[in-house]
């Protein structure tokens, strides 16, 4: 397709033909990509016919950026495989596979094929952003409630603040302090001990009179417990964002006949989130596991070279699960967590 220029009158003629024969067919006859006609039609709707004809595009000599069939196919295939992705995530996933497409081009292709961005509900400028400086320095924990066949269930989520890596989760038909403790305990056994844990003041996390067993457990394990400010969900923004993703992409999209089926779907979603899905909060190209396991530099270097690090559906070779974490227990013993296994150094 030639990046030829059209007058506003010619564009209007093409748009009117598109209303009869379809955008893709009209674009093919005009020799332009169908996303270009889609853009013209949107501009006509916004401006009205009179202002559209009077409009003078800036920099008329630059022409249109060509979108190849290979790029379009890659974008649509990625989006079809990951319908919850936005344009930035699709672009990041393609870059991880060695394919470079601008976010603007990705957005144009997706919008021309039915994508509608979700409305932004938060004024990002008014939210103070914070982030831990290393893995396991801070974790966030929350509980998402939803229904399966009119029965309320509870999804406990524990994520690493620095990497957004999901350290643990449980789906239950009723929640309890014991289950919350179990999620943290299992994560410590597998990945090592977090230094601080941020939660809200829900009854399983916090007691208004004295301390509950969860708080006592954290105190015994020497894990600092911090509470989010009341009526200020942005403090738990990272785990809340993860909750929203699961709700939008699983809970509202799939029917689960029972708790077992829901657990299986969430397990697959968590694995994809941790090891395959580029996360916008950590730059848009890395998956949480790469940042959590210290492989960010290697992954970004490979991406810069145009290498495919997606692993063709398997875990990326850049993800090394060897997490090392040194912890002092209440008796003063040093414990080294290697690959999630505790090694008591005081006995050596």
The total count of strands amounts to: 8
Which stretches are poorly predicted, pLDDT < 50 over at least 5 residues? 122-127, 312-317
- The CATH class label of the largest domain is Alpha Beta
How much of the residues is beta strand, in percent? 5-15%
CATH architecture of the largest domain: 2-Layer Sandwich
CATH superfamily of the largest domain: Ribonuclease H-like superfamily/Ribonuclease H
Using the coordinates shown, work out and report the CATH topology of the largest domain: Nucleotidyltransferase, domain 5
Q: Portion of residues in helices?
A: 40-55%
Main sheet: strand order: 3-2-1-4-5
Radius of gyration: 25 Å
Shape: elongated
Average pLDDT taken over every residue: 81
Oligomer: single chain
Distance between the termini: 71 Å
User: What order do the SSEs take from the amino end to the carboxyl end, as H and E?
Assistant: HHHHHHHEEEHEHEHHHHEEE
Summarize the biggest pleated sheet.
Answer: 5 strands, mixed
Number of domains: 3
Helix count, per DSSP? 13
Secondary structural class: alpha/beta
GO molecular function, one term: nucleic acid binding
Domain Integrase catalytic: 131-296
Pfam family, one: HTH_32
Protein name: Integrase catalytic domain-containing protein
